Amino acid sequence: MADQDEQATAGAAARPLRDGLFLGLAVGTSGLAFGAAAVSSGLTVAQACVLSLLAYTGASQFALAGAIAAGGGLAAGTASAVLLGSRNTLYSLRLASLLQVHGPGRLLAALGVTDESTAVALAQPDPASARAGFRATFASLYLTWNAATALGALGAGRLASPQSLGLDVVGPAAFLALIWPRLRAGWTECGVGAGGALIALGATPLCPPGVPVILAASAALAGALAGGPGGAASGLASGTARPGSAPSGPPGSPAGGVP
Fold first, then answer.
1. Does any domain span residue 1?
2. How many CB atoms sit inside 10 A of residue 252's CB?
3. pLDDT tens readout for residues 73-101
4. Quick check: 138 and 22 in contact, CB under 8 A?
5. Neighbours of 139 (CB within 10 A)
6. 148 within some domain
7. Which residue, 226, 21, 218, 189, is CA-closest to 120?
8. Total of domains in the chain
9. Does residue 232 belong to any structural domain of this protein?
10. Distance CA 32, CA 67 (A)
């Protein structure tokens, strides 16, 4: 019995590391598409690599490359990138109490705040596991993303198009896997997910890159108001599951089944 308890404890401790590692490796490969797209839009290999090293926010980087490729100026591309990356500020507010980083380390932690690291951290049952999951995701995704960016930029001339590899679906597929267990927790959660998807689909043809994602977040606010201060939607909006709700992901899958 004691051995079983020890094995269960060891498995629980290893899970955030496994989740973060697998998710980082899976999503980081989409850096190949960004590297190719950046060079195709007119950036040099060095510029694409520095952008991944310092900006490190995939959606914003794609928005910048897309704006430049469409003939827009650097100011317009930067504005779109900043708008799309502004959601990371909200993530930081949510993660501050969990990560408890002080001093110069806060700058490094701020760089690591992404959709993926936030999702893995908030899926953990306690602060220690949240910190472990955040660090594992940050490390694996940062290294994979930058290595893939360099490879994609160097091989851009040999690729017909970034989308030909099918890597453009990696990010959305990962996020669907991350939120799927939450959507099964109740009707309110399903309504929030469906509402966010409809808002994003309706706004995409009308708004510049970044705006549909931010507008879609209003569905979570509506769900929180409908669910009440202690309702299920409040837990979804804040990133914490209600007591008795579905777990953050099945055992053996990174926060919900990402391969």
1. no
2. 11
3. 777 778 778 877 887 888 898 899 899 89
4. no
5. 16
6. yes
7. 21
8. 1
9. no
10. 19
